[in-house]
Amino acid sequence: MDLALARELSQEAETKIVLFVMDGLGGLPHPETGRTELEAAWTPHLDRLAKESICGLTVPVATGVTPGSGPGHLALFGYDPLVYNIGRGVLEAAGIDFDLQPTDVAARGNFCTIDGDGVITDRRAGRISSERCEELVAGLREISLGDGVQALVEPVREHRFVLVLRGEALSDEVTDTDPQKVGVKAPASRGVTEDGEATAALVNKWVSEAQAYLVDKAPANMLILRGFAKRPDWPQMADVFRMRPAAVAHYPMYRGLAKLVGMEALAVGPTLEDSFAVVRENWDRFDYFFVHYKHTDAAGEDGDYERKMEKIEEVDAAIVTLVEMEPDVLMVASDHSTPAAMAAHSWHTVPFMLRSKWARADDCGYFNERRLALGSLGTFPAKEAMPLAMAHAGRLRKYGA
Fold first, then answer.
1. Long-range CB pairs of 342-345, under 8 A, 24+ apart, other chains included
2. Buried (b) or exposed (e) across 30-47, using 16+ Cβ within 10 A?
3. Euclidean distance between CA atoms 162 and 150, whole angstroms
4. DSSP designation for 65
5. What is the DSSP letter of 298?
6. Residue 18 and residue 385: Cα distance in Å, rounded?
């Protein structure tokens, strides 16, 4: 369903939809046990929920395509990620409430570690503390580009920061300096188009001065940039889907993404209990809640199979609280797979289940990749999750006579 059709068919209703996203949930079998993290975890509550749900696996973008977090979430929100895509910089900036101007170009930054030859050995600089990030950003703010262009730098969380270039005639048609892997040097930025060449030169000038400043700041002795973008003007969920949407997300990037599609990003603490408490406190104010859980993805990216399994079990122990709120539609989903075996996002299909009183519960029975593949939904595009939820919530009118 495209957004034009959604706008035509959507109707208001006294129903609640909850989308609970376990980031990076999908996995691959452990070489010794043959079980994925989700298959190995003890998940009696998620399994019970699966017995009452329709189940399947989603494809975030397209078969064989490894999605970033932005496209993976946009698809779940009902936005075709091949139509609505945005660089990570805007998402991070929006997530920290940075006031992006129409001509600004934003990039997501990581402090990273390089060896004596300039080769990246850790893309996250050992996940330095947020306090250390603030200290380093204070020094980066002293870099001047001149020529009427400002380099604005803001800390985000741990090793992450935002770089915003502000000036006239700036372009976001530039390449990243983040190779998104270790064992290589950070490449220089270059213009994708002729318009981007001048901006790429400014990026490289800033990175060069930043490297000189960071040279003795190990483990954060270098930085990498990705996701250069300008703020988009997208259709808003309230207009398209005729509902009041809220985001319950602790990490700035996901708050930013939700805000770009018109969700109100609610203040929330770092724990699952914090998230579910915020949902309960705001239950009467909103029709749709997007609740985000990051730790499954972080463990997968670190290649930590055991920790990812533990984080899944943490969700299982807490999910009862969300079920007890009795949303009319509860979806448990993910934006992409992050197998610990790969220590990275992957192209593999993604776990999904939907519980509703109107659902024809299938025989899946267990919430893991192997059993979900047998569910009645089969393997389907993640962008279809939203119209599926809307239908089960009584929020779509009949199409045609």
1. 342/28, 342/303, 343/300, 343/301, 343/302, 343/303, 344/301, 345/24, 345/66, 345/67, 345/68, 345/69, 345/301
2. beeeebbbbbbbebebbb
3. 13
4. P
5. H
6. 12
Task: Return the axis-axis angle of helices 69-76 and 252-260, rounded to nearest 10°.
Answer: 50
Domains assigned to the chain: 3-86+233-392 (3.40.720.10), 99-229 (no CATH)
Q: How far, in Å, CA of 73 to CA of 10, rounded?
A: 21
Stated pTM of the model: 0.84
* Alpha carbon distance 47, 36 (integer Å): 15
127-132-133-138 Cα dihedral, nearest 10 degrees: -160
Residues 6+ apart with CB under 8 A from 322: 18, 20, 276, 279, 291, 330
Q: Which of 12, 190, 220, 14 is nearest to 129 (CA)?
A: 220
- Cis peptide bond prior to 339, omega within 30° of 0: no
Residue 76 has pLDDT above 90, yes or no: yes
- Whole-angstrom Cα distance, residue 143 to residue 198? 18
- 3-state DSSP call for residue 290? strand
In angstroms, what CA-CA distances link 296 with 34, 211, 293, 344?
19, 32, 7, 12
Instruction: Provide mean pLDDT across the span 76-87.
Output: 93
Whose tokens are 């389907």? That residue is: 380
**What whole-number distance in Å separates Cα of residue 163 and Cα of residue 105?**
8
pLDDT digits (tens, 9 = 90+) for 184-238: 999 999 999 998 999 999 999 999 999 999 999 999 999 999 999 999 989 999 9
